[in-house]
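Follow-up to my post from last week.
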Amino acid sequence: MHILEEIGKKAKDAALKLGALTAGVKNRALEEMAEALLSREEDILAANRMDLEEGEKSGMSPALIDRLTLNPKRIGEMAQGLREVAALPDPVGEVVAGWRLPNGLEIQKVRVPLGVVGIIYEARPNVTVDAAGLCVKSGNAVVLRGSSSAINSNRVLTEVIAAAGESAGLPAGSIQLVPLTDRESARQLMRMREYLDVLIPRGGEGLIRTVVEESTVPVIETGVGNCHTYVDASADLDMALEIVINAKCQRPGVCNAMETLLVHEAVALEFLPRVAEALRERGVTLRGCPRTREILPDAEEATEDDWYREYLDLILAVRVVSGLEEAIGHINRYGSKHSEAIVTRDYQAARRFVGMVDSADVYVNASTRFTDGGQFGLGAEIGISTQKLHARGPMSLRELTSTKFIIWGEGQVRS
Amino acid sequence: MHILEEIGKKAKDAALKLGALTAGVKNRALEEMAEALLSREEDILAANRMDLEEGEKSGMSPALIDRLTLNPKRIGEMAQGLREVAALPDPVGEVVAGWRLPNGLEIQKVRVPLGVVGIIYEARPNVTVDAAGLCVKSGNAVVLRGSSSAINSNRVLTEVIAAAGESAGLPAGSIQLVPLTDRESARQLMRMREYLDVLIPRGGEGLIRTVVEESTVPVIETGVGNCHTYVDASADLDMALEIVINAKCQRPGVCNAMETLLVHEAVALEFLPRVAEALRERGVTLRGCPRTREILPDAEEATEDDWYREYLDLILAVRVVSGLEEAIGHINRYGSKHSEAIVTRDYQAARRFVGMVDSADVYVNASTRFTDGGQFGLGAEIGISTQKLHARGPMSLRELTSTKFIIWGEGQVRS
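User reply:
Got it. Predicted complex:
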C-alpha cells in the first residue's frame, strides 16, 4: 500500500532528526502544540460533531459516544497533558551505565529513542494527543492509527498538533495519522518492520490479540486487567473492606479495577456478608464459587469462565480459598498478570505473595487502582504493559526509549 | 502437538519455582552441571560421533562439520563456561529503583526472571550448555530447540545437565530439549505464547527471519552484523590501518567483523593502496565502488547488493565517500544496526558519528570486534540484539530478566 510506505519512510527520516533534538526544542514544540489545540478548539469540536453524528446514526452505545465526545474541558485537559509532558525530564541522552575496560576502552550505555513508534487505538481521540506528546518528548516519530469512528476528530487533532510542532522545530513527519481505517491498512502497518521499531495497541482485548498475533513489528502488549484482591486469614477486615470497595467500585471500567475477590476460608464467614452488603449497596453483582454461595445464597453461580473474565463493570467474581497457596495458584492461572493485592497482617504471607505472584504490579494492603503512570509518579502514561519483555507495568517516557553502547577508544584492536 | 504442549507446561511450572531459588542453589546446580559434563565425556563424544557420521554422509561442509565437532577440549570449555556463569552476580532480586509516594505507598521495581525462555539455534552444540547455564542463573526455565544435525549431541548434553541440575535442587523441567527437529515443531514453538515469555533465535539470517516473521511469542532478534568502519579525513592512518585489518581479518566469520570499509575522499588516494596491500596479503578480496576502483583497479566491482551483504568471509566492500554525512547515511541505510566504527582525530566528527549512527554499538578509534558480552565485561553472552526493544547489543544475565513493581501499603485506597 503506497501511502503507508510513504508514511513509514517519512517517519523514519523524521526519527533520525528528532533523536538529535535538545529538550529545549522538544518542550517548545509541546507548548506550541498545547496552544494550538486551544486556539483551534472550534475546528476540533466541529470535526468531533461529525464523528458523533455518524456514531449516533450507526447506533453506537452511550458509553462509546461518551468516550468519543470532545468538549472544551476535554480539549483543555489534552493541552494540559502536553504541558505536563513538557515539564518531565528528557529521557534521551541519559547515561544509564558506563565503565572503563582493562584495555582502556571506555564504554557508555546511553538512552536513545526507539525510532518510530506505531500506535493502533480505538475510540478515544485524546489518545491521539497524549501518545503524540509522549513520543515527541522521548524523541520518537509517531504513526497513529485510530479507529474509523473517530477519524474526523483524529484528523483535525493530528493536523493541528503536527503543524504547531513543525513550526516550532520538529522535523516534518514527526507526527502522522494513517488516513485509512480499514482492516487491511492496519494489517499492513503491523508488517512494516522496515519502518516501525515498535507497535503499541491500545484498546480492547480483541484489538490487542489481533496485533499480537499478526504483527511482525515488535509489540508491547498493554492493558487487559483481570485483577485480584486476596483477603488473608490475618487481614484487618475493616481495611480489607475499604480496599475491596475501592478496587471494585471507584472506577469499574478501567484495567486496574478488581475483577475477582479471593477470601481465606478462615475469615469467609465473617467477611463475605459484610463485603457483600457494602458492594450490593453500590450496585455490584456477585458471582460466587460453591463455598461462597453457601455463605451468600443470593450470589449468582460463577462458572470456570468467570475466573478469566475482565468485566470492566459492576460485577465481581468471588472465591473462597483454603489459604495463601491456593490464592497464588488461582491468580497465576487465571489472571492477566496486571495488578493483584493481598490484605494481610502476616509478614510471611506478604513476602510470599509478592514473591510468588507473577504479575506486573503486586500490592500489600492497598487498592489495585493505583497502577497508573501518574499515580506512580512517573508522569503521563502510554499504556500498562502486561508482558515481560522491554517494559512491565505503567509505561512512561523511559519505556519509549532504547539504549546504545558508545565505545571511546584510542586505536584498540582485539588480540 | 501434544509433546510441545507438555514441554511448555512443565517449563512454566518449573519457572515459577526457579524464580524463587537463591543464588546459592543455582550456583551449586551450575557447578554440578559442569562436573557432570566432564564425568560423562565419553557418552557425549559417542553421541557427537553419531551426528558427525550423519553429517559426513549427507555431505556437510568442513566448516559446519567443525562447528558440530565436540572434543575433550571443547567439553572442558563448556564446563568452564558454566563455572564462570556461577561466578557472576545473581540478577534476580536486584532493586532497580524504589521511592515513596506522597500517600505513603512504597514502590519498588525489582528484577525478576522472564519466566520461560525459548532458544532456537543451529549447528553448534555448545549453545545447548551456554544457553541453559545463563537461563538457570537468571532464574528462567529454558526450552531448547536445536537443529537435526546436532540432535544426538544435544540430547545427551541436555540429559546430562538437566539431571545434574535437578539433583542439585533445580525443579524438574528447568532445562528441556525439544526432541523434534522438523519445521512444524519449530513453528508450533513460535506460537506457544501461553508458555513461552520470549524466543531467541541464534543462527543464520534465514532462521532469524523466519522466527521474526512467524512468532507470536515476543522475539529478541540477534546477530546479523553488516558492520562498517569509516576512515575520516582527519584519521591517523596508521591507526586506521590496524583497526581495519583487525576488524576484517582477526576472525572474519563472526557477526562483529567488518563487512564494508568507508573512506573519506580526502584520504582515499593515500589510504586505499596501503590498506589494499595489507588486506590482500591476508587473503582478503576487495569489492569497490567506481571511485575505489579508480584508485585500486584490481578490486572487483561492488554491486548495490554488496552494501547489504554480511560476507562472514575474507571479502570486503569498499566505498569512497564525500564525507561524514555520506558515511553516516550509508551506514543507516545499508547496515544491520550492529557495530560501526569511525577512525578520526576530529572532536566534532567523533561526536556526530556516535550521535547519528543508529546502531547498537558505535566505536570511535577501535575495532568493531570488541562487541561481545565477555569483551564488554558483562560475563557470558546469550546473543547480540540488533533490535531496539528490551535489549540492544550484547545480552547477558540482566537481559534475561524483567521487572516487577511491588507496592507496600497500609490500607491506601484511591480517591
